[in-house]
Design brief:
single chain, mainly alpha, 2 domains, two-stranded antiparallel ribbon, 2 strands, 1% strand, binds zinc ion
Length: 370
């Protein structure tokens, strides 16, 4: 039994994670009960949480893993340091696992496949002994910030996550408070809220852009994950710097990347063209209708209606794409703000929004019948 346990789990990681969680969920409330709270402590937690969380989402995820934008080596170092505060292993390990997750999604090779259960996807894969592989990250190994982190990761992580918060706590005579609020508890919070992306974001929400996948879009999860909750979109278009594409979609990581671009600190932000996004949405709704058609009988007139809406939408997308490419050529020649093209694009946008709404309405009605 003992041998079985030793063979299954990475004991150092398991006990470290257990210790951090036990302190957070059992000792921390007791500490507060005994010693109260001073204003510096929640502030330390909040700042550390945002900085480390952004280090993971903007740095580890959208920059290092997916190269959704470019930046200077100075910002690269900042992102590396903030990401190290997340205590989620080296960039090369994290990105290797994540790139495999995208490539081998929902298969036995997916390191945090939800198909192996919620617990496995959330935290189990970290504490279990798995295939130790660092592949597909040769581009990252060339970066100086990544090389430095690979060499000094554990010293850096210990200093950033525990030593510094302890000393900050010392400045207001509560070193243990500083260590708990700014270190241990903060790390555990960042851990679980990042792990939600691998568990909840493959579990709850909607498939709006890709049908045959476990990845889901959920605005609720976006609130807890610095915008990473729009995970279905992300799996379909992983190189887009946004996860939430609407202006009102809660995606602070997207806002930070965009904000930095105004000061030229980030540039070449990659974005999927709108017609491609709408094509994916139309295809997904059609796939959902086809799935329902296996359970209920759809009458001939409705079937024809669905086909007509879809084919007219796809024709409009083709025309829109043609227009966009003409627009790009004109821009390259120095023409700006061609009102005729802008009006045509708006026309296609409205037409396609109507087509998509009609298909969604049909899908909703069919769901109600089934
Ligand atoms: Zn995923
Ligand atoms: Zn990703």
């Amino acid at each position: 039994m003992f041998n079985k346990f030793i063979n299954k789990y990475n004991c150092t990681t398991l006990f470290s994670i257990l210790a951090l969680n036990i302190i957070t969920f059992f000792y921390f409330p007791f500490y507060i009960y005994k010693n109260g709270i001073v204003w510096q402590e929640p502030l330390l937690l909040l700042i550390g949480w945002v900085v480390a969380g952004m280090g993971i989402t903007v740095g580890y995820h959208r920059y290092f893993s997916h190269k959704t934008f470019k930046t200077s080596s100075f910002i690269e170092w900042i992102l590396m340091i903030c990401g190290t505060m997340g205590l989620q292993n080296k960039i090369i390990n994290w990105c290797s696992d994540h790139r495999i997750h995208h490539k081998k999604l929902d298969t036995a090779d997916d390191p945090y496949s939800i198909k192996e259960g919620f617990f496995h996807a959330h935290i189990g894969w970290i504490v279990k002994k798995g295939k130790e592989r660092i592949i597909g990250v040769s581009d990252l190994k060339k970066k100086r910030a990544v090389k430095f982190q690979t060499k000094y990761y554990w010293s850096m992580a210990m200093i950033l996550c525990f030593v510094i918060p302890f000393f900050i706590g010392l400045t207001f005579n509560r070193p243990i408070g500083g260590l708990l609020w700014g270190g241990i508890v903060r790390v555990v919070f960042v851990h679980h809220f990042t792990f939600f992306i691998n568990s909840f974001c493959h579990f709850i929400g909607k498939r709006n852009y890709q049908f045959n996948t476990t990845a889901r879009d959920s605005w609720i999860m976006a609130f807890f994950t610095f915008g990473e909750g729009y995970h279905n979109f992300h799996h379909k278009f992983q190189w887009d710097y946004r996860n939430g594409i609407n202006w009102y979609s809660f995606d602070p990581s997207k806002w930070i990347i965009k904000f930095l671009s105004y000061f030229k600190l980030t540039y070449s932000l990659r974005k999927v063209d709108k017609p491609i996004i709408i094509r994916a949405q139309i295809e997904t709704v059609n796939n959902k209708i086809s799935e329902l058609a296996q359970k209920i009988k759809i009458d001939k007139i409705l079937n024809k209606n669905i086909k007509d809406i879809t084919s007219s939408a796809l024709k409009n997308i083709d025309s829109w794409e043609l227009l966009e490419s003409k627009c790009k050529k004109l821009k390259q020649k120095g023409h700006k703000n061609n009102i005729f093209y802008k009006k045509r694009i708006k026309y296609f946008e409205l037409k396609l929004e109507n087509s998509l709404s009609s298909l969604m309405l049909i899908l909703m009605n069919l769901k109600n019948i089934s």
